[in-house]
């Protein structure tokens, strides 16, 4: 163990919050240690957003090439070079990771330590952190250790070489038939990508529908979009066990009721668990929730003053943008600001093609408010009736807007359709700025875009009733 090193702040975990907060603090003249046991950039850069969104592009190009004749373009038969697509993805990951490394590496005052970090008690006002051979102390500790895949207690799973998001992205050969357990974001994004790259794909979801959080009609539209591409969707299943298929060459998932589903590869995408179990939290008196998350106040401070929990581990978001936003809040508050995570409006996109994007309340939440006497209206518009979508030949999906009739504020929006990952932000910005629907109606839109339809959609809104029937 080397001698004790003193810092103004120690960041454990280089996900989507810690490195950026560290950079801000050193720019203010502080001395900061950034401890990362794997790769800078965390899940997003190395095994999440960056690789999946890069591979998604290869899948989309293959998909559009197959549709080429619809647009008057002749291509001949379309072949996917899986290795080349994976290599393109890896190059992008390496570029992102090395860019981050180069930027962080030249920041004066920032010490990067490649090791697993953990708290080891306190010395007066200072927290002690151990990281490999290093013993560090600082009065401020920022935890940004993210999540890892949750493996469900399915009999037989521990004896199979199943895939998770990381192992899937390391494949060298295209799976001939990919069976996916789980029907959430990772499942659906990867199902469509691998289907378009040439795999057969089957999804097995225990819940009654895919994308459990979404409105029923939206989940149905997502399911329809995936089945139209030849993806087999099984909802409401109960998995009894998994094992090798008869020919030993693949996997067999045995379902309750006697049915089984075989595949060459098995992807398990059934949620994530927080990396809080090896952090030595008990040494400073910090506790986690029943599911392992760190509880924070709206300033993202834990129950122990001087320790912050940022990103997925605080369960205030499970996205790169929420993690990054967390560090922005803390950076400003450390400089005397009064920002709060409570003030932000939840927004996200699932990057199927077309994407599903959402902000604010869901229809079911709004209906509950109606039972409490609120006057709420909803507008729904099919993408097949949006001119730009017709011109693009991509008419899947719909737009839904929820409006509070008394205040004029948007309460939420859901969009399944081309560029909805971008368009949703128009509503998100109006919501965050406290504006009303009139702002959207009166602003001058660009033609021809999907966004230009928002005023028309708003005009067609109807009162929302307490029940959907
Ligand atoms: C397949 C996939 C696709 C995704 N796509 C998107 C997307 O399109 N958009 C989006 O917004 N989000 C996406 N996400 C979610 C996104 O990746 C996370 O929300 C995001 O990475 C934020 O996480 P974080 O900052 O909390 O930590 P992470 O990015 O998880 O990083 C935590 C870091 O801490 C390190 N660490 C953990 N414990 C220790 C320790 N004790 N000592 C030292 N280091 C430690 C880990 O090695 C890791 O590098 C995706 C996730 C997955 C899995
Ligand atoms: N576009 C994005 O922003 C994006 C993309 C990918 C991942 N992510 C993040 O990654 C995280 C994890 O995603 P995920 O898809 O693994 O989890 P998820 O929680 O979104 O979905 C998991 C699904 O698995 C099902 N399930 C659980 N146990 C099962 C079982 N035994 N058999 C069958 N089904 C089972 C659940 O009912 C649920 O529908 C999310 O928090 C998300 O924020 C985000």
TrEMBL record:
Disulfide bonds: 44-49
Residues annotated for NAD(+) binding in this entry: 182-189, 205, 271
UniProt xrefs under InterPro entries: FAD/NAD-bd_sf, FAD/NAD-binding_dom, FAD/NAD-linked_Rdtase_dimer_sf, Pyr_nuc-diS_OxRdtase, Pyr_nucl-diS_OxRdtase_dimer
Span of domain Pyridine nucleotide-disulphide oxidoreductase dimerisation: 349-454
Gene Ontology MF terms: flavin adenine dinucleotide binding; mercury (II) reductase (NADP+) activity; NAD(P)H dehydrogenase (quinone) activity
Cofactor note: Binds 1 FAD per subunit.
Keyword hit for rRNA-binding: no
Keywords: FAD, Flavoprotein, NAD, Nucleotide-binding, Oxidoreductase
Pfam families per UniProt: Pyr_redox_2, Pyr_redox_dim
EC assignment: 1.16.1.1
Binding, FAD: 53, 117, 312
Domain FAD/NAD(P)-binding stretches: 8-322
Cofactor(s), names only, from the UniProt record: FAD
Active site: 447 (proton acceptor)
Major enzyme class: oxidoreductase
Family assignment from sequence similarity: Belongs to the class-I pyridine nucleotide-disulfide oxidoreductase family.
Name the record gives this protein: Mercuric reductase
Record gene name: merA_4
């Amino acid at each position: 163990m080397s001698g004790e090193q003193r810092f103004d702040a120690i960041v454990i975990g280089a996900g989507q919050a810690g490195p950026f907060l560290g950079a801000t603090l050193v720019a203010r003249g502080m001395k900061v240690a950034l401890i990362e046991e794997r790769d800078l950039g965390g899940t997003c850069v190395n095994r999440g957003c960056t690789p999946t969104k890069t591979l998604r592009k290869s899948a989309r190009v293959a998909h559009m090439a197959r549709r080429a004749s619809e647009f008057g373009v002749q291509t001949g038969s379309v072949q996917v070079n899986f290795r080349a697509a994976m290599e393109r993805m890896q190059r992008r990951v390496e570029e992102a990771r090395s860019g981050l490394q180069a930027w962080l590496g030249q920041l004066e005052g920032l010490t990067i330590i490649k090791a697993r970090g953990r708290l080891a008690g306190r010395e007066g006002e200072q927290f002690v952190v151990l990281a490999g051979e290093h013993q560090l102390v600082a009065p401020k500790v920022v935890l940004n250790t993210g999540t890892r895949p949750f493996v469900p207690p399915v009999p037989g799973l521990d004896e199979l070489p199943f895939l998770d998001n990381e192992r899937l992205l390391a494949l060298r050969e295209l799976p001939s038939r990919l069976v996916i357990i789980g029907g959430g974001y990772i499942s659906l994004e990867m199902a469509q990508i691998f289907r378009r790259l040439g795999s057969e794909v089957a999804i097995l979801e225990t819940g009654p529908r895919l994308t459990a959080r979404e409105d029923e009609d939206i989940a149905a539209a997502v399911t329809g979009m995936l089945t139209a591409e030849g993806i087999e969707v099984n909802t409401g299943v109960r998995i009894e066990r998994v094992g090798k298929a008869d020919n030993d060459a693949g996997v067999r998932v045995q379902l309750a009721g006697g049915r089984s589903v075989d595949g060459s590869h098995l992807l398990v995408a059934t949620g994530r668990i927080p990396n809080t179990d090896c952090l030595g939290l008990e040494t400073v008196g910090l506790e986690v929730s029943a599911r392992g998350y760190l509880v924070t106040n709206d300033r993202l401070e834990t129950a122990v003053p001087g320790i912050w929990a940022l990103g997925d581990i605080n369960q205030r978001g499970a996205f790169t943008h929420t993690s990054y936003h967390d560090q922005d809040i803390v950076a400003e508050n450390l400089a005397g600001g009064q920002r709060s995570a409570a003030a932000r409006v939840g927004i996200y996109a699932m990057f199927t093609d077309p994407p599903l994007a959402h902000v604010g309340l869901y229809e079911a939440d709004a209906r509950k408010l109606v039972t409490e006497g609120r006057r709420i209206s909803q507008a729904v518009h099919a993408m097949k009736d949006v001119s730009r979508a017709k011109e693009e030949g991509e008419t899947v999906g719909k737009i839904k807007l929820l409006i509070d009739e008394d205040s004029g504020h948007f309460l939420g929006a859901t969009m399944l359709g081309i560029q909805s990952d971008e368009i949703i932000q128009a509503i998100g910005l109006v919501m965050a700025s406290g504006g009303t629907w009139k702002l959207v109606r009166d602003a001058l839109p660009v033609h021809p875009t999907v966004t230009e339809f928002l005023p028309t959609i708003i005009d067609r809104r109807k009162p929302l009733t307490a029940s959907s029937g």
